[in-house]
Design goal:
single chain, 2 domains, mainly alpha, Glycosyltransferase, 3-stranded antiparallel β-sheet, 451 residues, two-stranded antiparallel sheet, 38% helix, 14 helices
Amino acid sequence: MRLFAMAAAIAAALPGQAQSYVPWTKGAFETGQYRNVFVDMGYSPEAVDAKLREVFDDVFRGPNKVYFEVGDTMAYVSDIKNHDARTEGMSYGLMIAVQFGEKDIFDRLWRWSRKYMQHQSGIREGYFAWSCKTDGTHNSDGAASDGELYFITALLFASNRWGNDTGINYKAEAQRILNCIQPREYTPEPRPAGMGGFGAFSGGQQGPQKMYLIDPETKLITFTPDGFGQRFTDPSYHIPAFYEVWAKWGDDGRSELWMECARRSREFLHKCINGQTGLNGDQCQFDGSEMQMPRFPGMPQRPQGEAPRRNGNNNFRYDSWRVPMNIALDYEWSCADGEWQRQYGEKIQNFFYSQGIDTFLDQYRTDGSLPEGHEILQAGGFRKLRHSIGLVATTAAASVMCSHSKSKEFVDALWNARHEPFEDGYFDAYYDGLLRLFAFMHLSGNYRVIQ
């Protein structure tokens, strides 16, 4: 593994000494500098380097790895507990591989993604089936928009890092996706039997429709780029700095559009995040408001006088965990919204600190109250609130933006956390493991703009 050298100008503290933190006014796009928060907070560079290697190996090479090679040329990342490979994990794997300079891992993952996940023709051409069995069979043909977001960005970084003449033309592959995600007309597929008036692809609409990753009116990323899912968004899909990468290196003639998408995405994050707690829902409307439970033909009517059932998608839960880390990335790379991002980082850390640094739970309503039983999103066959290492990781990553003393406690909590099964046997090597690795990359200054 070829790890990046530590940023000496930022991480020059001697072991055991913590530097004072001066808030950034310019991001790494401009300065090329990255903060090593671990070293700033007293960890030695040698210990940080060793820990980062250990966490990387846990994901890609250890006994609980989620990376599996197929033959001589391909590999996939698997959500072990759900027995599948997802565009989320595959695109995360690509981003991690290019950040660490692991070209063989990158190329293997890309070949598997292209062969089994990416539609090469038809109305979904260029998009990726979001979930596949580990033999490549589709569980679903539809896309989840965050996969395309990461695929494009990782491919552009690969182009910048390795060029385009080593067997894969990374730039051309990225440009093909950039072209395919533009709005285009399609005729919805027939609705599955038993679905009443609601088809997963058509969203219940009839006649020609448009498919797009980015909503043309709001310039915000969709939850899914077809049917019902393109009527709303997911706050954890919002990484404005990725659009700046597209604008700088996509060379697709749409730089102004991508910069506008970045600006709109930052504005959206202000709207969808609770002003008191810093929490956001898993999904929401394009204006930042809560999701409403849709009613489709054939659904039973609610008994008269019965209160509407709360939509659990409005709660802070698994997808939502990524938002603190995503905002930290935008702060590190662009810093175009630095003042608000610093306030946000301390706000969300203050909330979780109030819940107990070692005891906060992984699902809340956005006002900070606990969800009722039916609102709790299950995982791995369990419907239970936990103190999950994935959220420990992303709240620690927010320390990149923070100057209050609590941020060190979050960093120490991540450093000392053990990624191991809970007493009831639940263990998530995939999502918890990947978020843990991303957080260590952020906090060590090794999640970078590759130019």
